[in-house]
Structures are given as C-alpha cells and as structure tokens.
Amino acid sequence: MKLKLQGLTVSDMSLAVIGHYGLELTDLEDIVLTGLHGITDSGLTSLIKNCESGLTKVNLSGCVNLTDEIVSEISMVHGATLEVLNLDGCRSITD
C-alpha cells in the first residue's frame, strides 16, 4: 500500500492522526510526503512507528523541517526493509 501526500498543508498532528486512527498501516510500504513544510521529526515518527510490514520506499524530498533524527529513526525501525530513501531538499539533514 502507498500513502501519497504531495504539496499539501499537512501538520504533525495530521500525521499522528493518520498513524493512530486513520489508515490501516499494516500493509503500508511506500510513503511519499514531498514538499510538506509543516511536518517535523516528531510527527513523522508517530507515523512510521505504526507501519508494521516495513517500509521499502520513503520519499521526503522538500520536507525542510526534518533533521538527522528522523533518518536515524527510519533506519532503526525500517532498516531491514528500506530500499529507497529520498531526502532531496531536506536542508536540515546533513550528509
């Protein structure tokens, strides 16, 4: 299953609601959250921790408020299944 939210006004609370109440996340493998300027590590963490099958593709390009902490969290939670991680334009993430 794929979750695609591009260029929308989405907040941390929105992601928390999706993660907790919204979608059935057991089969979610592909997340596209490009250009979401309103999300932070905190909001994304609440979403990715509920993806039980293991994410294979994560596209966070243009999410300017994400930091190195979310990269560590994604690799800890989904490192065994993750094949693609796009962080283009995430200015607060270092090499």
Describe the structure.
The protein is globular. It has a four-stranded parallel β-sheet, with no helix packed on it. It starts with a strand and ends in a 9-residue tail after the last strand. The chain has 95 residues and is α/β, with parallel strands linked by helices. 32% of the residues lie in helices and 13% in strands. The mean pLDDT is 90. The chain has one domain.
Provide the fold topology:
Elements: E1 2-4, H1 12-22, E2 30-32, H2 41-48, E3 57-59, H3 68-78, E4 84-86
Parallel strand pairs: 1-2, 2-3, 3-4
Helix pairs in contact: 1-2, 2-3
Provide a concise account of the structure shown.
The protein has 95 residues and is an alpha/beta fold. The protein has helices spanning 12-22, 41-48, 68-78; strands at residues 2-4, 30-32, 57-59, 84-86. The model has no long low-confidence stretch (mean pLDDT 90).
Radius of gyration: 12 Å
The CA-CA distance between the termini, in Å, is: 30 Å
The number of helical runs is 3
Strand content: 5-15%
Whole-number tally of structural domains: 1
Average pLDDT score: 90
**SSE string, helix = H, strand = E?**
EHEHEHE
How would you sum up the major sheet? 4 strands, parallel
